[in-house]
Structures are given as structure tokens and as C-alpha cells.
Amino acid sequence: MVRIKERYLLVNILYPSEIGSRPDIPDVVVINQPTTDELTPVALMRGIRAEVAAFFGDHGSGAIEGAAFSVKYSSPATSTFIIRTSRASYRYVWTALTFMDIVPVKHGKPCTFQVVHVSGTIRKAEEEAIRRARNLIFAAQNGQSQRSADPLANMFGSSKRPTHEGAGADRFDVDDEESDVEMGEVSDG
Amino acid sequence: MLYDLNIAWSPATSRADLERTLKFSSTLGYDVVALNHTITPPIPPQITNPLPKFTNAPDTIPTSSTTRTATTSNASLPTVLHRATLLFADPSRNHGLPQLASAYDLLAIRPTTSDAFEKACVSITEASLISLDLTTKQPFHFRPKPCMAAISRGVRFEVCYAQVLSPGADARARAVFIGNVAQLVRATRGRGIVVSSEARKVLGLRAPADVVNLLNVWGLSTDKAREGLGALARGVVVNEGIRRSGFRGVVDVVGVAERGEADMAAGDKSKDGGGVGGNRKRKNGDGDGEPPQMSKRQAKKMKAALRQKEAAEKTQDKDTAMET
């Protein structure tokens, strides 16, 4: 039995252009502020499709259309969502997200989309989302900026590289080496 | 350690904007950033560094140890370096480069003509980065030979992704950019490409993983792109640092050894003996408290004189004996 392979992208919406405008709130909270409720999954998908079409043309549009491209989870309160695409076309979606710089609604605020996790199963994406939300709360309480120990570890595997100490906002980044891209490719199927 | 060696700065940039950019880049996980001042020739005779200083920016030379301490002490801002990029059109006029290099932490050049590009690749030693505006069509091809010569000399090429992310870049500019990146990757086989942002506003910055994916789509493999954000960029910073602090980029003074107890005692004694001079440095080592130091040659001369004197006395004695 051949299984269709997928990728789940966990995406955060960040609002960096408002840093410093409100001195009573720590920067972490300003950056990770809630998104407007107008950003429904449908609006999000429309925005991503438009961007893929602009950047990859008909070829890109076709590639994500044939795949099971959908928004599996979206939470405007935490500015987080999970997207499912096929493994063959996840880089198109990712690139489109990188190129978007406003929230895809009417009069959308300027923002950036940061893909924080790529995994082969939705379970790992969900666990990562929970872990990040927890760390965010801790970071907001401490008033310090949220920094992961190794920003590239989630995407490309952290097991072989020595992780450096310091910036102790979250220590848990080290122990999630089983959920990355390479692992998904090997274990699926 | 992740590096972003290019955050665009101009005299019009406000400090609040800049601080916002720096804070966001720290949030995204960059540890060291460089503010970039683009200079159009001619180079002014009096070079001053107009880039704003930030509190935890190391005023001294950015060796690896200083950057590390700075980042751990204050997490809200990354370590800030100062960099100049010189627009370089005429390869015959580059005599201000060493002065320019000494005023900034990093020096990059942006060649705009074919001759200038060749020269930048092959012979210019002051700059360690070749930064190109990839959104415009270059009047030359990236041939493998000069490109590889540059990389084997230790010069790195820079790809700035915010050039294509900015709202000013239209479809044509994006196409030209991607074509240029593909050419550059082909000419260098992906080696020696440093990735940086050249963000003019805070929205031009992207997270490191997003950047790596972007370059992967454009034809640079994932591990090479990661290297370009980390190891290669670090190499540039450390090399430039040691070039400024060390002797010919080979020997560096890391720290001065502690003085031993015996040395301290000797120093105190000589100071006591110095008396009138106080803590001023004595000249020629002829203090009035202790016997003057004698050079070897002087000692030899004196010994010889003594011997001659003795010999003369002996002969005199003999003479007197003979007479009696």
C-alpha cells in the first residue's frame, strides 16, 4: 500500500513593525499579538494561493492544487496555524508564506509569516505548537524575549550539532530531534 | 551563532526604526548583525564612522570571545558591528580603501562594472565581501574563474534576500534576482556564499529557516545556505577582526600575562629608589638608587681596560725591580 506523503507546516504570524510603540507591554507580546478574527482559513488559503500563483505561476498553482492543500488548524488568538500540503510541493507554500507581508484580509496589518516547524505528521506539529505556546507564556511572564537555543534545529535536525548554551529562554529545544523533516521521510511508508 | 551581515542604514534612518529592526532580528535568532553604510565614491579624505553605537556593541575589535560575552549579557539586542559598502565602478581609483577599512569593522565592495568585478575578485585585499545588487541586470557574467579565485582568496559573495522581498521589487526585478542567484551558484558551485538580509525596514527580515528554504528554492542547497548564515559569515567577521587587531592578520595579542610576585617586588624597589622621578618613566635606565645596567659590550671593554691596566702595572713593577 502506497501512502501519500504530506508535510504539516506550523506557522506563526509575527507583527514586528509595532515593536516599541507600546512601552507598557513586553516586546514578546507585541510581536506575537493576536490576529484579527477576519483571518478565516478560507481567507488564508486564498492569500497563499494568490502568492503561489504570483511567484510560481501556473506550475506552482497546479502543484499545490493537486495536493491536499488545506488549513488544518487556525487560531487567531495565538496567531498560529497549521497547513497541510503534499511533500512535493511544501517548499512552494513555504516560499509563498515567506513572501507575504500583510495579513491577507481587507486592510490587513503588516506582518511576517514564520514557519516554525515542518513535520510529517500532524501530531508532532501539534505538540510543537503546544510547546511553543507554553514557552511564550513563560517568556512573557519573565519579560524577556523569546529565543530558541538553535533557530534552525526544528527544521533541519538538531541531533548532530552541538547546541550552544546561553539565552536560556527555552531549554526544551534540544530534545525534539525525532520530529524533523529527514525523520519523516524515513519513517513514513 | 547566526549572522546577518547587512542591515541597511542611511542618515535618514531613525533610531527607533533601527532599534525595532535589531530587536526583531534578535527575536528571530540572529546573534550578530552588521549595520551597513553604503558609500558612493569618491571616498572623502576625512573618514568618520556615522553609524550609531549601541550599548552592548563591543567598541573593541570583534574577536570571537567579545561577541560571545556580549550576546549572553544582553539578549534583547544582538551584537552590532559596523560595516561599509563601497560602490566600486572605476578599478583605477581605490586608494582610500585602507583608511575606510580602518574606520569600520567590516568592509564590502559592490562592483558595478566588469573590470571592477574582476579586480574585486582577483586583487583587492582590503575588502572581504563582494556584495552585488542582484535585482538589476549585471553588465557582466559570473564566470567561474574569477569567482573561484575570489573564494580561494577568502573573499565571499553576498546574497541579500530583502532586495527581492521589499515592496519596491516588481516581477521583473524578482526574475532578474533569481536568475543572478542561479548564475552565482553555478559559477561558485555554491561555495562561499554568505546570506544576509539588507533589510531597510523591519519587515524585510525573515527567520533563518525561512531564508534557508528560500535559497533552497533558488538552487542553493540547504546545508550550504545554513553555512552562509553561520560558519562563513563568522569567518568573515573573525578575519576582519584579526586583520584590524593583529599583526598582519597572523599574530594577535589576546591578553597580557599577569605579573609575578618577584617582578612586582623588583618594580616597587626600583620605584622607591627612583625618588624624584615619581611615577614617571625613567630614561636610559640610569636610576640613582641602584647600579646602572651594563651592556655586554661595555662590560667587555671595561674588562679589557682593567686587564691592560694590570699588565701595565706589572711591567712597571718589573722595571722597578730591574733597576734595583
UniProtKB/TrEMBL annotation, chain A:
The keyword tRNA processing applies. The keyword tRNA processing applies. Signal peptide: none annotated. Residues 162-172 have a biased composition (Basic and acidic residues). InterPro entries: Pop5/Rpp14/Rnp2-like, Rnp2-like_sf. GO terms for cellular component: multimeric ribonuclease P complex; nucleolus; ribonuclease MRP complex. Residues 173-189 have a biased composition (Acidic residues). Keywords: tRNA processing. Pfam families: RNase_P_Rpp14. PANTHER family: RIBONUCLEASE P PROTEIN SUBUNIT P14 (PTHR15441), RIBONUCLEASE P_MRP PROTEIN SUBUNIT POP5 (PTHR15441:SF2). Belongs to the eukaryotic/archaeal RNase P protein component 2 family. This is Uu.00g020140.m01.CDS01. It comes from Anthostomella pinea. The lineage of its organism: Eukaryota, Fungi, Dikarya, Ascomycota, Pezizomycotina.
Automatic annotation (TrEMBL), chain B:
PANTHER family: RIBONUCLEASE P PROTEIN SUBUNIT P30, RIBONUCLEASE P SUBUNIT P30. This is Uu.00g033550.m01.CDS01. It is found in: Nucleus. It comes from Anthostomella pinea. Residues 297-306 have a biased composition (Basic residues). Keywords: tRNA processing. It comes from the Eukaryota. Residues 264-324 are annotated as: Disordered. GO terms for biological process: tRNA processing. Belongs to the eukaryotic/archaeal RNase P protein component 3 family. GO terms for cellular component: nucleolar ribonuclease P complex. The keyword tRNA processing applies. GO terms for molecular function: RNA binding. Residues 307-324 have a biased composition (Basic and acidic residues). Pfam families: RNase_P_p30 (PF01876). Gene3D superfamilies: Metal-dependent hydrolases.
